[in-house]
Amino acid sequence: MNSWPPVETTVPDRHPDAPAPDTELPEHYAHCFGCGDSVEHGLRLRATAGEGMTVRSRFTVTTEHQGAPGLAHGGLLACAFDEALGSAVGHLLRRPAVTAKLETDFLRPVPVGTTLVIDAHLDGIAGRKVYVSAEGTVEGTTAVRARALFITVDLKHFVDHGRPEDIRRVAENPALLGRSIDVNP
Ligand SMILES: CCCCCCCCCCCCCC(=O)SCCNC(=O)CCNC(=O)[C@H](O)C(C)(C)COP(=O)(O)OP(=O)(O)OC[C@H]1O[C@@H](n2cnc3c(N)ncnc32)[C@H](O)[C@@H]1OP(=O)(O)O
């Protein structure tokens, strides 16, 4: 296995305004496929801040999330990890960041009706590069592991690249963004 993080990093402190351990984290965007309550068949991840540089997320697999009969689709499992890892970066550093690279190891199938518990850990930071990893367990057995590189960006990134009507809807109704995001930092 390659060394991780792949470059020299430092481990940052939690942001002073990061949610305290055991705090339930809000959805970051109502229309997010990973965590938004407005997305009918979305993943609806729920997350809790952990100790140190950790966040625990939970993804309950439903019949809408199947790939093979009765089993979660691998692409949706990768999506769940993207969300869980992004949540760790966003909430612990309180800086906007996007996924640049995501790698997943699928070790065991994840059945419909089970809850995947994803423990994400912020491993290190080098400039704008943030390295995070996570392990997902079903009833105590490791099913999926993932590693990712996130890159911190300015809020301008989302304004420049997002669809204007969606940006406008958020500007008119900031409640669509989770309580934890300051749209006027
Ligand atoms: C705030 C409070 C709470 C918030 C909660 C939020 C929860 C959120 C949950 C959300 C969850 C869902 C999250 C989502 O779904 S995010 C959506 C999916 N991701 C994207 O759309 C990102 C698309 N990519 C880009 O926009 C650009 O490529 C970015 C911005 C990433 C970089 O373009 P930019 O022009 O700005 O920078 P740069 O190119 O100089 O690169 C900078 C450095 O990075 C290195 N590099 C780049 N790519 C790679 C790579 N693939 N492997 C290895 N290294 C890579 C690069 O070599 C350079 O290194 P160095 O030369 O400096 O050493």
UniProtKB/TrEMBL annotation:
It catalyses: tetradecanoyl-CoA + H2O = tetradecanoate + CoA + H(+); decanoyl-CoA + H2O = decanoate + CoA + H(+); octanoyl-CoA + H2O = octanoate + CoA + H(+); hexadecanoyl-CoA + H2O = hexadecanoate + CoA + H(+). Residues 1-23 are annotated as: Disordered. It is a peripheral membrane protein. Residues 70-141 form the Thioesterase domain. Its EC number is 3.1.2.2. InterPro entries: HotDog_dom_sf, THEM4/THEM5_acyl-CoA_thioest, Thioestr_dom. Gene3D superfamilies: Hotdog Thioesterase. Its main location: membrane. It holds the Pfam family 4HBT. Belongs to the THEM4/THEM5 thioesterase family. Keywords: Apoptosis, Cell membrane, Cell projection, Cytoplasm, Fatty acid metabolism, Hydrolase, Lipid metabolism, Membrane, Transit peptide. It is found in: Cell projection, Ruffle membrane; Cytoplasm; Membrane. This is Acyl-coenzyme A thioesterase THEM4. GO terms for molecular function: hydrolase activity. It comes from the Bacteria. The keyword Cytoplasm applies.
